[in-house]
Design goal:
Elements: H1 7-36, H2 44-62, H3 65-89, H4 94-116, H5 141-145, H6 150-168, H7 170-180, H8 182-187, H9 192-218, H10 230-241, H11 245-267, H12 274-292
Helix pairs in contact: 1-6, 1-9, 1-10, 1-11, 2-3, 2-4, 2-9, 2-10, 3-4, 3-9, 6-7, 7-9, 10-11, 10-12, 11-12
Pfam families: BPD_transp_2
Main location: membrane
Subcellular location: Cell membrane
């Protein structure tokens, strides 16, 4: 018990929670933007992998973690182009296209990695930290929280900004209208097609950022199927959070704790089977789903293509 309360243990544990939380948080925010506009992206797992691979390659090539994150965002946008064209513009089945994007993303990134980087066993190293004067010297949590990379703070600000924009701006109102009742948005002079298109592109950027954060900062490497179901967990979190970014942050944090707690307990001597540690995050997600499923609310037009004039 004394080991669990030691300053070193708490510092390492908190830092691990942040590292595990951020990729899921960014991906969930991206999924939230799309779902609020009425677009269900079941391809998020594949898009996240594309973002992870793109971020890894750009960082490895340029040596810049910032450019790696930008590469991940662009990779996510490219990965979401199929959703944009086939779902939003052509009105095809969002579930079928989404699953296809996931399979394609998994296959392409695995093949490219095996062909180009598997033998080299490439690693990116640790990203430069950005200590915050005064706060970084706080005992225990100062090193874990306030000596994070500058990328962490920028990503956190982006998440907060999306929460504000969705809740308090005309763009957020139009986005939610596209998912709640697109005919009303159309009647008010707005463009459902344009609104959903912007949402899908922004969604792809954030999902790509989540993938890039995972490969560039959390693991500092890339392997095939790196996300390990993270995209599908993001879908669950999004549906449970009812479009509220604050709830997305809380549920993502719960997942981060679930991922970090197992290895942390092993380090201080608890004999926990490896399979149980791997299962724990998914058990937490299932329990959360059971407890809060009845209170989850999804936009009425989610997954439905909009046909102007149709009733």
């Amino acid at each position: 018990m004394s080991d669990m309360l030691s300053a070193t243990f708490i510092t390492v544990f908190v830092a691990s929670v942040i590292a595990q939380t951020m990729p899921l948080l960014l991906a969930s925010v991206g999924e939230t933007i799309g779902e609020q506009a009425g677009v269900l992206n079941l391809g998020i797992e594949g898009v996240m992998l594309i973002g992870a691979y793109s971020g890894f390659v750009v960082t490895l090539t340029t040596g810049s973690f910032w450019l790696g994150m930008l590469g991940g965002a662009l990779g996510g946008i490219v990965g979401n182009l199929a959703m944009l064209v086939l779902n939003v513009w052509l009105g095809l089945n969002q579930i079928v296209i989404g699953l296809a994007v996931t399979l394609i993303g998994e296959g392409i990134t695995s093949v490219l990695y095996l062909q180009n980087y598997a033998k080299a066993n490439a690693s990116l190293g640790q990203s430069p930290s950005l200590p915050i004067p005064g706060l970084a010297d706080i005992p225990v949590i100062g090193q874990a929280v306030f000596q994070q990379s500058g990328i962490f703070w920028v990503m956190l600000l982006l998440v907060i900004a999306v929460g504000f924009l969705l809740a308090k701006t005309n763009w957020g109102l139009a986005t939610r209208a596209a998912g709640q009742k697109p005919s009303s948005l159309d009647a008010a002079g707005g463009s459902v097609l344009r609104t959903r298109s912007i949402a899908v592109l922004l969604s792809g950027a954030f999902v790509g950022l989540g993938g890039a954060y995972l490969s560039v900062l959390t693991t500092a490497t890339f392997t095939g199927f790196l996300t390990n179901g993270l995209g599908f967990i993001a879908i669950v979190i999004t549906m449970l959070s009812r479009g509220r970014i604050a709830l997305v942050m809380i549920t993502s944090l719960i997942y981060g704790v679930a991922v970090a707690i197992g290895p942390a307990l092993q380090v201080i001597g608890f004999a926990i089977p490896a399979d149980v540690i791997k299962m724990l995050p998914f058990i937490v997600v299932i329990l959360t789903l059971i407890v809060f499923a009845r209170s989850s609310v999804v936009p009425p037009a989610l997954g439905a293509p909009y046909i102007r004039g149709a009733r």
